[in-house]
Design brief:
By secondary structure, this protein is mainly alpha-helical. Helices cover about 55% and strands about 5% of the residues.
């Protein structure tokens, strides 16, 4: 985006930032496999699939307090929404051991969001909901 490029230029970091633009889905994992840290500085968010995808590749993730991000991340890797200085502080604090430990934790946490596992959980929930609903309806009809 030209806006983001102008921000990078204004802050004197344009030569250190790459703007990749949109990327075909099949290239996303290749990209994630070649980065050291993924940062999700969202101001507003649900449960971000991009964070889960980065975690599934064993990538340590820093993220804001927006939406469902904190439930995915290690509390030490969360910064207040919009607090750029906190992102910088976190990055300075990271060492090789922390990064490796967080990469493993991220990978394991991402398994909880595996499509097949989530489908099994949803189906079990729906079955239980239907069975409970049938019991309630039978109880109401008996009255």
């Amino acid at each position: 985006s030209s806006f983001l490029k102008s921000v990078a230029e204004r802050h004197g970091v344009a030569e250190k930032v790459k703007f990749l633009g949109s990327m075909p889905h099949e290239k996303v994992f290749e990209y994630l496999d070649n980065i050291d840290i993924y940062i999700q500085p969202s101001r507003q968010e649900g449960l971000p699939r991009a964070v889960i995808e980065a975690m599934s590749r064993g990538c340590p993730v820093l993220g804001s307090t927006a939406g469902g991000i904190p439930e995915l991340l290690n509390k030490e890797f969360i910064f207040r929404n919009g607090a750029v200085n906190e992102i910088c502080t976190l990055l300075k604090k990271l060492d090789k051991e922390m990064i490796q430990k967080e990469a493993k934790r991220s990978f394991e946490k991402a398994k909880e969001y595996d499509k097949d596992l989530l489908n099994r959980k949803r189906n079990a929930f729906y079955r239980e909901f239907i069975n409970n609903s049938k019991s309630i309806i039978k109880g109401v009809l008996k009255k």
